Amino acid sequence: MTSLSSDDSIDGWWKMPVEEFDVVVAGGGPAGSTVATLVAMQGHRVLLLEKETFPRYQIGESLLPSTVHGVCRMLGVSDELAAAGFPVKRGGTFRWGARPEPWTFSFAVSPLMNGPTSFAYQVERARFDEILLRNAQRKGVDVREGCSVTGVIEGDERITGVRYTDPDGGEHEVSARFVVDASGNKSRLYSQVGGVRNYSEFFRSLALFGYFENGKRLPEPYSGNILSVAFDSGWFWYIPLSDTMTSVGAVVRREMAEKIQGDREKALQALIAECPLISDYLADARRITTGRYGELRVRKDYSYHQTSYWRPGMILVGDAACFVDPVFSSGVHLATYSALLAARSINSVLAEDLDEKTALSEFEARYRREYGVFYEFLVSFYQMNVNEESYFWQAKKVTNNKHTEIESFVELIGGVSSGEAALATAGRIAERSAEFAAAVDQMAASADGNMVPMYKSEVVKQVMQEGGQVQMKAVLGADAEPELPLFPGGLVVSPDGMKWLPYRPA
C-alpha cells in the first residue's frame, strides 16, 4: 500500500513514502474499532492508528443493549463478550426523584428489547476495548498501536490523509478517501471539520471517581445494575465491574469545585459521607490504590457537541463529536452508534452507491437526533429530582434556568434533523419531566413493579427507539421489517445493515 510519486527524489534526497488506504481511523476505542471493522468487512482498505498500547485504562463502563446485541453482533464479537464474564446489567436502579426508596427499571419491559436481548453488560473498558480492537485486526483492519496522529493533510478542498508518528518517533504520511476522527474528548483533530465545540451550561459538572473492592451488591436479579443516587451535592454512580470491584464516582456542579479540590481521597470520602445509601454500600469496602484502577481521577466539562460533524473527506465519531452527562450510560452507545452510521455512509460512497454529501448528511442528521433525544431525556431526568434546598438541584430546574443554551441547542438539533420547530423548549422539558416522574411514581407504587407506564412516557420511548431498531436489524437481518426514512427525504438501511439506500415506497 506504499506508493512513491513519479518524482521520488529531489537533489538526492528521498521523499517520504505515502501509504494509501480507503479509510484511516484515528483512535482505537469502541467508536474507532467499530467504524474500522464495519468498513473493512466490506472489503475496503482500512488503517487504524492508536496512540496507546492496548489494554489501556478508560472510563465509561456501563453499556446499553443496543451496543451489545446490535453493533457488537454485527461486529461478530457477541460470543466473545458472553464468554468474558462481564456482570450482566438487566436495567438500572435509582434513588432519584421524590421517592426516598430506590426504584428499578428493567430492559425486559420494553417491546423493543424484550426476550433474549433484554440485558447489557458492565465492562472493564480495558478488556472490552481490546476485544473490539483485536476483532478489527481479525477482520482485516491494519491496526498500529503506539502511533499518534499529529495532523491532517488537506488538498482540493477536502481532507486527503493524516500525518502520524510511530513508536520510535518516525514521521509518516497516509492518504485516504476518508479520515475518521475517533480519538475521543481530547482529540487534537476535531476542529479540522470546522465549527466549534459548544459546552453545555446545564450539564456543567465535575466528576471525582475511583474503584473499590468488596462493595455491596443490589439484590438479585439486579446485582449487575448500575446504581445512581441523587444527594444534596449532586449524584453518585455505582457500577459493579466484577464480583468484587466497583466503579464509584461523584458528580458535582462546577461552581462547587471546592468540594473536590485539594486532597482527592478526603474529598471523595466527604462526598460519600453526604450520601447515606452509597455510604452503606461501601461500609465494608476498601478503595483500590494500585495498578490501573488505583488513581482517583477527575473529569470536567464532559457534556458538549461540535457544531459540524463532517466535511469532505473527514468525519467525527464518538466523543470527538459530542458527549452528554453519563447518568443513563449513553457514552459507549453514542460512540458505537455514530460509528455504525459513519460506516454505512463510507461504505455507500466507496461502493459508488451514493454521493458523499447525501450519505454524510444522513449520518449527521441521525447522529444529531440521537444525541438530542438523550440530551432531552437527561434534562427531563434531572428536572424530576426534588430537592428544593440543594443548590445543585435548584440549578437543574429548567423553568428557573436563566440560560438559553438548552433551547438554542435543541433548536439546532430540530433544525438539522427532524425539522421540528421547537424540539424541546423549557416548557416541554418540564412537561416531559412531570410525565416521566408520574410514570416512575406509578411504577414504584405498584405491587408488581409494573414498568409499562415508564416505557410509555415520551422521553423513554425516544431514547429506546433507535437502539431497538439497531438491535432488530442485527438479529433479523434481511428478515427485519422494512424501515421508513427517519427524516423526510432521507435514506433507509440496507438489508444487511452495512449501507444506506434511497427510499423507494412499495
UniProtKB/TrEMBL annotation:
Transmembrane segments: none annotated. Keywords: Monooxygenase, Oxidoreductase. It comes from the Bacteria. The keyword Disulfide bond does not apply. One of its GO terms (molecular function) is monooxygenase activity. Signal peptide: none annotated. InterPro entries: FAD/NAD-bd_sf (IPR036188), Flavin-dep_Halogenase_NPB (IPR050816), Flavin_halogenase (IPR006905). Belongs to the flavin-dependent halogenase family. Bacterial tryptophan halogenase subfamily. This is Halogenase.
